[in-house]
């Protein structure tokens, strides 16, 4: 009989992996809050400092699946501890970084470590937790990123204001040390190990079903970020007082915590079937902003709903990719686990770019239509995937 309840050991592992993603998320996202401090300290333009963000995202997207494929046979516990140790060293070196080139190189190396650790955390959560509770476990691990945005980034930004941007990396180094200690004592010794070649790994990407599943979260995130990227000018257009914008953004992040909790519930049963309607609702919520932002209170309520819908897809699509890999190429679950984080970065870039094009062509609020249309495409792709799943289950 399969276990359906979580033991104390399970919960300790889930919380440890959540701490790890919180630390990784804080390190990745906090750079946005300290960009101006870095640019003035290193005597460069804000635009040049912004490449630290784009270089991180590009390196993350390209390197993560490559490294996951090349290291799929590594013992997971030792490999994760080595990577967390590397994360600590890289962040400590950022503290003493004195040039743009040095900081850029360190951030790109950190991106590789971050991408691989996130993927490994997802694999460990999905492999060691009872199947009935996988959705809950993975949603908690994803929740580390939400907490990073709500708690870690503001704290890191305040520390930069008080003590300089270097001190923010002292914080991430310290947090990395906590994650290492927790992982050292909690990560299981006997984690599943699969030996496979690079050919086995990348053969997964030749499967049309995997590519379809990849673009579901990419389009889902793209829909949100077509609007979210320009949320500050939208708020200013709503005549939100300048001093209240940071509070509204904090509220947006806080609401996303509940989005993460709901994501786990959606993933618990018929996840892809449920996601079809999630994207449909997301499309309605995003396009509604075109009208509701004419009224301050209605606009804020609509933005709150946008945040609630933003990450409902994460847990379901993460597990879906791993499960599909189990069907089409069981030796490539490591690569499959890396695809959701990569898809999210692709979606963020796609949504921001599409929103930017429409914004510069005319009315700012037209970005809400872009978000709605992209969400409809995500909905259609999810409908198609679900239909193919149902056909596959039917006896020949």
Automatic annotation (TrEMBL):
Please name one Pfam family that this protein belongs to. MFS_1
Location of this chain's protein in the cell: Cell membrane
In this chain the Major facilitator superfamily (MFS) profile domain maps to: 13-390
Q: Which domain of life is it from?
A: Bacteria
Kindly list the residue ranges recorded as spanning the membrane: 12-35, 47-67, 79-102, 108-125, 137-163, 169-189, 210-232, 244-263, 275-291, 297-322, 334-361, 367-384
Q: What is its main location?
A: membrane
Keyword tRNA-binding on entry? no
Q: What membrane topology term does the record carry? A: Multi-pass membrane protein
Name the UniProt key words of this record, in alphabetical order: Cell membrane, Membrane, Transmembrane, Transmembrane helix, Transport
S-adenosyl-L-methionine is among the record's keywords: no
Query: This chain belongs to which protein, by name?
Result: MFS transporter
Annotated organism of origin: Neobacillus pocheonensis
């Amino acid at each position: 009989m399969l276990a359906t309840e979580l033991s104390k050991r399970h919960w300790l592992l889930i919380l440890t992996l959540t701490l790890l993603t919180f630390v990784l998320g804080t390190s990745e996202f906090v750079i946005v809050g300290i960009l101006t401090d870095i640019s003035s300290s290193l005597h460069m333009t804000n635009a040049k400092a912004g490449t630290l963000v784009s270089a991180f995202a590009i390196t993350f997207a390209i390197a993560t699946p490559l490294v996951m494929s090349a290291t799929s046979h590594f013992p997971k516990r030792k490999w994760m501890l080595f990577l967390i140790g590397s994360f600590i060293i890289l962040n400590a070196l950022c503290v003493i970084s004195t040039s743009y080139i040095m900081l850029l190189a360190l951030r790109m190396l950190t991106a590789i470590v971050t991408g691989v650790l996130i993927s490994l955390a997802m694999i460990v959560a999905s492999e060691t937790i009872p199947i009935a509770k996988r959705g809950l476990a993975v949603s908690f691990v994803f929740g580390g990123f939400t907490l990073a945005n709500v708690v870690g980034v503001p704290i890191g930004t305040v520390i930069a204001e008080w003590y300089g941007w270097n001190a923010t990396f002292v914080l991430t180094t310290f947090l990395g040390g906590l994650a290492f200690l927790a992982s050292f004592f909690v990560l299981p010794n006997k984690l599943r190990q699969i030996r496979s070649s690079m050919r086995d790994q990348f053969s997964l990407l030749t499967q049309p079903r995997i590519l379809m599943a990849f673009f579901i979260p990419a389009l889902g995130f793209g829909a949100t970020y077509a609007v979210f990227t320009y949320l500050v000018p939208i708020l200013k257009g709503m005549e939100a007082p300048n001093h209240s914008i940071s509070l509204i953004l904090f509220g947006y992040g806080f609401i996303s915590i509940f989005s993460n909790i709901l994501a786990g519930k959606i993933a618990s049963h018929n996840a892809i079937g449920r996601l079809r309607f999630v994207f449909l609702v997301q499309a309605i919520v995003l396009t509604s902003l075109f009208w509701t932002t004419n009224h301050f209170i209605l606009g804020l309520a609509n933005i709150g709903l946008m945040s609630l819908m933003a990450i409902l897809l994460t847990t379901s699509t993460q597990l879906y990719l791993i499960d599909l890999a189990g069907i089409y190429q069981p030796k490539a679950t490591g690569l499959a686990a890396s695809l959701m984080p990569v898809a999210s970065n692709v979606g963020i870039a796609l949504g921001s770019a599409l929103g930017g094009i429409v914004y510069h062509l005319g009315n700012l609020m037209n970005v809400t239509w872009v978000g709605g249309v992209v969400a409809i495409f995500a909905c259609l792709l999810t409908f198609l995937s679900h239909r193919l799943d149902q056909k596959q289950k039917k006896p020949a």
